[in-house]
Design a protein that fits this description.
single chain; alpha/beta; Rossmann fold; 6-stranded mixed beta sheet; 6 helices; about 55% helix; about 15% strand
Length: about 140
């Protein structure tokens, strides 16, 4: 079965964020279920953003080696889609046409080009849809 959900960086980061216990719990439960079902994916962009974010956000609890191990583990248990030229060009189109920031457009493009119908993120307008890709905020009160 192919991926049905592309997980954005913030979901991965919240799984380690003890300062946000409700979001941490929700992210961990969500990731556990998606990994068990085999229905989740990430883009290579998301993996890179995760590493950078956790090493900056949690410098006392997540050194670079630990962050690298977690990043590698996500790459092992989640389907990973690359962000090559085709994704870059589609992201540019999305940024212009849909007025997305470039990095948000790259998330959308990775999902769209890989036929992944849902992006889980708190960075998009929950419930919105762009060219067949729907955005859901797993941390919104109705999602919890």
């Amino acid at each position: 079965m192919g991926a049905e959900v592309l997980v954005d960086t913030n979901v991965l980061v919240y799984a380690f964020d003890a300062d946000e216990p409700e979001k941490q719990r929700r992210a961990q439960e969500l990731l556990d279920g998606l990994v068990a079902d085999g229905t989740a994916c990430v883009s290579s962009q998301v993996l890179g953003e995760f590493y950078v974010t956790v090493t900056r956000r949690f410098p006392e609890s997540m050194d670079s080696a630990t962050a690298a191990r977690h990043t590698e583990r996500f790459a092992e248990v989640l389907e990973v889609h690359g962000t090559g030229l085709q994704v870059v060009l589609e992201a540019l189109r999305g940024a212009v046409r849909h007025r997305l920031s470039y990095y948000d457009a790259q998330i959308w493009a990775a999902a769209r080009l890989n036929h992944v119908p849902v992006v889980l993120s708190e960075d998009f307008s929950a419930g919105s849809e762009i060219e067949g890709v729907r955005f859901e905020n797993p941390f919104a009160p109705a999602s919890a």
